[in-house]
Amino acid sequence: MRHGDAHRKFNMPKSQRRALFSNLTSALLTHEQITITLTRAKELRTFADNMITYAKKGDLNSRRLAAAFLRNDEVVSKLFSTLAERYKSRNGGYTRVLKAGFRYGDCAPMAVIELVDRDVNAKGAKDLARVAAEKAAAEAAEKAEATAETSENA
Prior knowledge:
- 60% of the residues lie in helices and 13% in strands.
- By secondary structure, the chain is an alpha+beta fold.
- It folds into two domains: 14-117, CATH 3.90.1030.10; 124-154.
- Strands 1-3-2 form a three-stranded antiparallel β-sheet.
- Strand 2 (95-102) and strand 3 (109-115) form a beta hairpin.
- The radius of gyration is 21 Å and the shape is elongated.
């Protein structure tokens, strides 16, 4: 009998497995699309769907359960504001798993897991903002250096 065999073990202890899926769920909710192995993507569906279901409930206990699992306040706030509104009329099925060939090296089957009705601009938005801020800071430093040189020469 299969009592209590609901999830894949992935050849790791429960604490490591919990940390893995907590981090993967945070990444999926942040970027709304990630590429991982097929078996991990299939297992990740349940965790991501549960988090969105918590967000749709919207009560304090659901927020605490999501925060305890995700351990990231930015992701929890996005989950309960943006994603809860986006999926309030949908009854389950918040994620989609698409097969994406095989990984070079060990030939592991890969998959793209994404949120249904995802925001295309969410993937890498934080990195783009960071790069733009660094570029603006570098330009400001160059401008300040140029003005300092002109004042010294005068």
